[in-house]
Design goal:
Length: 243
């Protein structure tokens, strides 16, 4: 079966992210670098959201023309790929973490949470099929490596890492609110309070859960039962394989 032909954007992203593009040997020496461009773009995204990032805005902040940026990065889509890999930073070293695979994956989830809290635009731009850089791919490698000696099949290892990452993404979403009728303190948002209370007969379970909640905010990926449920489920699969 033939492999699909990658898009031009995908080829450009791979070349830049994985240092496969040959360096220019002619012309004036560059006074602008891809790292500098990406760093400014990340600063803008952190402060104002990724929607505020544009080639023009980055160029102006660096004191260059937009055309000067195109010598280093062909378009905003490729710039975004470079921004993601810069923002996630180098993958964590989990070798010294105690507690076996469970302790390591817990620490992995905590560190991923910290990265997403530092760069809250990351979860929204890391969805879908795309080219990943060495830093981001290294994070995935660390997570899969935690399960390498558990007896899980390749399919199960991949599924476990997907599930863990999905929980971190959901916990981050909860901490930022917006995806649920409740806020980061597990209370009804101001916009939803009156309408749900007025239609209490239609939403009794949501209201009962909120009324019974503590009202404390989600402060970390380990806050609540979500991560424990995910790891318990992985443990059940591991024990089933060993049995």
């Amino acid at each position: 079966m033939s492999l699909p032909t990658p898009t031009r954007e995908a080829v450009d992203a791979v070349d830049l992210l994985w240092d496969r593009r040959p360096l220019a040997t002619r012309g004036p020496k560059a006074t602008l670098s891809l790292d500098a461009i990406a760093a400014v773009a990340v600063e803008i995204a952190d402060a104002e959201g990724v929607g505020a990032v544009s080639m023009q805005r980055v160029a102006e902040q660096l004191g260059f023309t937009k055309m000067a940026l195109y010598r280093h990065v062909p378009n905003k889509d490729v710039l975004l790929a470079v921004m993601i890999d810069l923002a996630v930073d180098v993958p964590p070293d989990l070798a010294g973490v105690r507690g076996g695979w469970r302790g390591k994956l817990t620490r992995y989830a905590e560190l991923l949470w910290e990265v997403w809290q530092a760069h809250p635009w990351l979860p929204t731009v890391t969805l879908g099929s795309r080219v990943m850089g060495p830093n981001e791919t290294g994070w995935v490698e660390r997570a899969v490596r935690c399960l390498a000696d558990t007896g899980l099949t390749g399919d199960q290892q991949i599924d476990a890492v997907l599930l863990l990452s999905a929980h971190v993404r959901m916990a981050h979403s909860l901490s930022a609110a917006g995806s649920f009728p409740w806020d980061a303190n597990r209370r009804l948002t101001a916009a939803m309070t009156e309408v749900l209370r007025d239609r209490a007969a239609d939403f009794p379970s949501i209201l009962a859960a909120i009324d019974g909640a503590t009202g404390r905010p989600v402060r970390s990926v380990t806050d609540g039962i979500g991560l424990a449920c995910v790891l318990d489920g992985i443990d059940h699969q591991i024990r089933g394989r060993s049995g």
